[in-house]
């Protein structure tokens, strides 16, 4: 396993370059299998684990099933100090009787100060920890003033219950404004942005919507590359759905969220071709492509078995030759 540092100064933390996504743990993936995957990840040197306060509500759970399972696993293994735990808040249903909605009237809890404080403290209890290493706003909230959201995250950091803060499903200009607001308030800025990012890419309309902006853009990576210098706190990019739920390696799995178009299908073809030639799997090559980029992202991988995890772990140490990268980029 390889590692990188995110954050700055006394808040900087070292994380494994692969992050383990625990979204389905405790529901789609049963507890015994979830524990085995977590054990194997740690055995392989993995240190970064990602969840949220609402994931499992999408698949038949009540929402915090994954946090609860992680809490039981952490308590039984005694490895808390070796790991970096990330969770998210703000995208659970505001009104449980209604469906989530990305168009007005939205039905997200949002990122008001009282929501951030309440949900973060509930996550601490469910995870059984006294500090959240990375706390994200799960979906940008344009109905709450940025000053309120930034101040609420800063308050949790000043109390020592949150290390780094981040934001997900967000437009770049909102990240820039939030970081400027943090500077005005004298609180740490967002240190991490978590967006959908993969070897394939979306049609332009899928990149931006008025409420939810899920995909990375070249401008986000350009901005991230400009940080980490005096006066410009570092910003790391974390990538969710890097393998599009298996669509990069399995023809029976559809490309989704705007990525189903001729350009992406050609990239999937080239990816399989390259993988066969170098003796790897398409998933391994896709992750290695991301990890070895000029501005690397941290992929969040979500295996449902130890065998799947073992396949993905290979990518952490797979270096692609320059000509292979050029071929993949050109597709």
SSE blueprint:
Layout: E1 3-6, E2 13-16, E3 19-21, H1 31-43, E4 48-50, H2 65-77, E5 84-89, H3 113-127, E6 132-137, H4 146-158, E7 162-168, H5 172-185, E8 192-196, H6 204-207, H7 218-225, E9 236-240, H8 262-278, H9 282-291, E10 298-301, H10 306-313, H11 322-330
Parallel strand pairs: 3-4, 3-10, 4-5, 5-6, 6-7, 7-8, 8-9, 9-10
Antiparallel strand pairs: 1-2
Helix pairs in contact: 1-10, 3-4, 4-5, 8-9
Anisotropy-based shape:
globular
CATH architecture: Alpha-Beta Barrel
Number of strands: 10
The tally of structural domains comes to 1
Q: Summarize model confidence as the mean pLDDT.
A: 94
**Poorly predicted ranges:** none
Briefly note the structural class of the backbone. Answer: alpha/beta
Q: Report how far the terminal alpha carbons are from each other.
A: 29 Å
For the biggest sheet, the summary is:
8 strands, parallel, barrel
The main sheet orders its strands as 3-4-5-6-7-8-9-10
Q: Summarize the amount of helix as a percent range.
A: 25-40%
Polypeptide structure, described:
The structure is a single chain. The protein is of the alpha/beta class and 331 residues long. It has one domain: TIM Barrel (Alpha-Beta Barrel). The chain contains 11 helices and 10 strands. Strands 3-4-5-6-7-8-9-10 form an 8-stranded parallel barrel, surrounded by 4 helices. A two-stranded antiparallel sheet has the order 1-2. Helix 4 links the parallel strand 6 and strand 7. Helix 1 packs parallel to helix 10, helix 3 packs parallel to helix 4 and helix 4 packs across helix 5. The longest helix is centred in the C-terminal third of the chain and has 17 residues. It is globular. The relative contact order is 0.13.
């Amino acid at each position: 396993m390889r590692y990188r540092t995110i954050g700055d100064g006394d808040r900087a933390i070292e994380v494994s370059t692969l992050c383990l996504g625990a979204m389905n743990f405790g529901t789609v993936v049963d507890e015994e299998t979830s524990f085995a995957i977590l054990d194997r990840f740690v055995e392989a040197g993995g240190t970064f684990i990602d969840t949220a306060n609402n994931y499992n509500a999408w698949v038949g759970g009540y929402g915090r099933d994954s946090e609860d399972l992680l809490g039981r696993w952490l308590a039984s293994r005694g490895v808390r100090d070796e790991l970096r735990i990330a969770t998210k808040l703000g995208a659970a249903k505001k009104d449980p009787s209604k469906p989530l909605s990305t168009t007005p009237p939205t039905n997200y809890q949002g990122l008001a100060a009282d929501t951030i404080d309440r949900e973060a403290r509930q996550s601490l209890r469910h995870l059984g920890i006294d500090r959240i290493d990375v706390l994200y706003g799960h979906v940008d909230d344009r109905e709450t003033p940025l000053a309120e959201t930034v101040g609420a995250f800063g308050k949790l950091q000043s109390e020592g219950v949150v290390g780094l803060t981040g934001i997900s499903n967000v437009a770049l200009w909102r990240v820039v404004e939030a970081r400027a607001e943090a500077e005005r308030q004298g609180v740490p800025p967002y240190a991490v942005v978590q967006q959908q990012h993969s070897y394939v890419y979306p049609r332009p309309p899928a990149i931006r919507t008025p409420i939810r902006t899920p995909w990375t853009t070249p401008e986000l990576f350009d901005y991230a590359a400009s940080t980490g210098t005096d006066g410009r706190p570092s910003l790391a990019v974390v990538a969710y759905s890097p393998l599009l739920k298996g669509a990069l390696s399995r023809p029976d799995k559809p490309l989704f969220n705007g990525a189903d178009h001729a350009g992406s299908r050609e990239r999937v073809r080239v990816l399989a071709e390259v993988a066969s030639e170098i003796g790897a799997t398409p998933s391994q090559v896709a992750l290695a492509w991301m990890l070895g980029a000029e501005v690397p992202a941290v992929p969040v991988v979500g295996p449902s078995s130890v065998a799947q995890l073992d396949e993905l772990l290979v990518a952490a140490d797979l270096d692609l030759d320059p000509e292979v990268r050029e071929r993949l980029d050109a597709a």
